[in-house]
Write a structure and sequence with these properties.
elongated, Immunoglobulin-like, mainly beta, 41 strands, 46% strand, Methylamine Dehydrogenase, Chain H, 2 domains, 5-stranded mixed β-sheet
């Protein structure tokens, strides 16, 4: 039997098929996610042992997608601590990353990759990423010379928690001389603390101890010497000066092994000198047959670069330096010296200074943040010019404008301690009465004061300042003072000369006015 076709026009059939999607229409658009980073490339300068946070921001969008989107960040270098993937909301994102405090000193670069994930574990991702370049410079801030650095600021940019302070170890010099077992103020670098024994015609020795436990890693006996300076350390080299007459020379040692790398002769007539100042490719020391001379030597081979003669104080000064100039106060004036040639660029008279021909100076200019230098006016005397023994004389501090090359001001009071400078505030201690004073760097005016707990306590040695604490020694103890509350928050019952290493260890060369030969290490970060 022949079947009959339905009574529908062919055009109507085509229209229905088209309406039902069976007539050649396109497939649904594919889901997608777009990411864009709005944060500028990251350039971090970090102090070793400190963490740093970075916030990565940007925009995102999704198309043809109802499922949640998880945003994740990846660092191929593995240097950042990264957040867990999180569900994206709105149209923008903000992700916080941390550069951990465990990063070793050095320079790093890499790329952060932002990804859109299909699940919380980020095992599957949507196509397309966004990236952000980063560079990081991690610097270890060591206590390398007099008052820590070539600017002699006594400032170490650490944030410290007094609740974590604990004694780590102690060390005692066994070798003796006519001065007993005295040691000079210490310096630190590359996980070691460097010590020189203070001598008077005795066996000169430079020691290197492990910061970890105080064990001796090397020593170098220098033979019988008239006197030996405190050490300095920089870029893998340790420096110390033997002084007398013909024996007078600056020694350079390999910091890792203690091998002698160079001996640079300079003039002296029984001087005692402070720790050398290391700056760039040169190391500076001050003495002279009749005093007043600053000597510059190459750090690479010990060759002489220049000699500057200012006259004045015979010994016990530490030149300061920046990238362009060397600065020396001879008791009567501040000299600005061209660091390339050793020529005098300017001489600024100190109206409260005095010319010194036989006494020492005991100090060095402090270079400030306002293109200024602050230094003691006049010289000082210790009975025996030696860095292990504190001088007697309190002196006013004078400020100089380095840009205009003129005198600024002098403090109303006279001070004993090596000062410290940070964030526009100058800190120094004095006695009669015993008080530590915080002064405005711009004017010298006293901003606030701290008095030792006991009225009979006298302030001695040097000041160290950090981001939140200040360390000062009296003749009875070392104190940490909170800069916010201006109150003592920690005390250790042995006084002495202070140093603070990149390893967050406070060193006390014990002895309020004269060294006992003992070194105490206080760990500030467990």
């Amino acid at each position: 039997m022949r079947l009959r076709s339905p009574l529908f026009p062919s055009c109507l059939v085509l229209s229905l098929l088209s309406a039902c999607g069976g007539g050649g229409g396109g497939s649904a658009p594919a889901p997608s996610v777009s990411l864009a980073v709005t944060t500028a490339p990251v350039d971090l300068n970090i102090i070793s042992g400190e963490s740093a946070d970075v916030t990565v921001q940007g925009t995102w969008s999704k198309q043809n997608l109802d499922a949640p989107v998880y945003l994740s960040v990846r660092d191929a270098g593995g240097r950042f601590t990264l957040p867990q993937p999180a569900i994206a909301a709105g149209t923008t994102f903000s992700m916080k990353l941390s550069a951990p405090s465990t990063l070793a000193a050095g320079s790093y670069n890499g790329t952060l990759e932002l990804r859109a994930c299909k699940d919380a574990a980020c095992t599957d991702t949507w196509a397309g990423t966004a990236s952000l370049a980063y560079t990081m410079k991690v610097t270890a801030v060591e206590w390398e010379m007099y008052q820590g650095n070539a600017a002699h600021t006594g400032y170490v940019p650490f944030t410290l928690d007094p609740a974590r302070f604990a004694k780590a170890w102690e060390w005692q010099r066994k070798e003796t001389s006519p001065l007993g077992a005295a040691i000079n103020p210490v310096v630190t670098g590359d996980g070691k603390v460097f010590i020189s024994g203070d001598v008077y015609f005795g066996q000169g020795i430079v020691y290197a101890l492990s910061e970890k436990d105080g064990s001796e890693t090397w020593r170098y006996p220098m033979g019988q010497v008239p006197a030996l300076s405190p050490p300095s350390v920089s870029k893998g080299r340790v420096y110390a000066a033997v002084t007398g007459q013909e024996e007078t020379a600056l020694w350079a040692f390999d910091a890792a092994k203690g091998d002698v790398l160079a001996k640079s002769a300079f003039e002296g007539q029984w001087p005692n000198v402070m720790a050398p100042t290391v700056t760039g490719d040169m190391v500076l020391t001050g003495a002279g047959k009749y005093g007043g001379k600053t000597y510059a030597f190459s750090t690479s081979n010990g060759a002489s670069k220049w000699v500057h003669d200012a006259g004045g104080a015979w010994d016990m000064w530490a030149p300061a330096a920046d990238d362009t100039y060397v600065y020396h106060h001879n008791g009567a004036a501040l000299f600005i010296i061209d660091r390339a040639t050793g020529a005098t660029v300017a001489q600024i008279a100190d109206p409260l200074g005095t010319s010194n021909t036989s006494n020492g100076y005991f100090g060095g200019p402090v270079l400030g943040s306002k293109r200024d230098a602050i230094s003691f006016a006049g010289g000082a005397f210790s009975g025996r010019a030696s860095s292990s023994q504190e001088h007697y004389d309190q002196r006013v501090l004078s400020s100089f404008d380095l840009a205009q090359r003129r005198y600024n001001w002098s403090t109303a009071n006279a001070y004993l301690t090596a000062p410290a400078l940070a964030d526009g505030v100058l800190y120094a201690g004095r006695n009669t009465p015993s008080v530590l004073e915080a002064m405005d760097e711009a004017t010298g005016k006293v901003l606030w004061s701290w008095f030792p707990p006991e009225s009979a306590e006298a302030i001695h040695r040097n000041i160290i300042v950090t981001r939140n604490l200040l360390f000062v020694s009296t003749d009875r103890a070392v104190y940490a003072i909170d800069l916010a509350t201006r109150k003592s928050v920690w005390r250790y019952a042995e006084p002495g000369a202070l140093a603070l290493s990149a390893d967050r260890t406070l060193y006390i060369a014990v002895g309020a006015t004269s060294s006992t030969g003992k070194l105490v290490a206080i760990r500030l970060q467990k």
